[in-house]
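Question: Hello, beginner here. Any chance you could explain the protein record under this note? Any guidance would be welcome.
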Amino acid sequence: MTDQPDSLGVHISPREIYDQIVGMREDVRGLTQTSESVRAELADHEERLRQIERWRYAVPATVVMGLGSAVAEAIRIASK
C-alpha cells in the first residue's frame, strides 16, 4: 500500500473524522438544551392561555349573577 492520495486528491484522516464527530456531539447537546427551554416556554404559554380561558368563561357568569342580584334587590326595594 502506498501513502499516495487517491486520484481525486482527497485524504481524510481519522483525526479529522474524530474532530467532526466531537463537533456534532456539541451541536446535538446545544439542540437538546434549546429544545428543553422551548418546551418549558411552551408549557408556560399553555398555562397562561388556560388561565385566560378560565377568566374569560367566568366573567359572563359573574355578570349574569350580578345583574340577577341587582334585579332581585330592585324588586325587594320596590315591594316595600
Residues 71 and 77 are 10 Å apart (CA to CA). The chain has a mean pLDDT of 88.
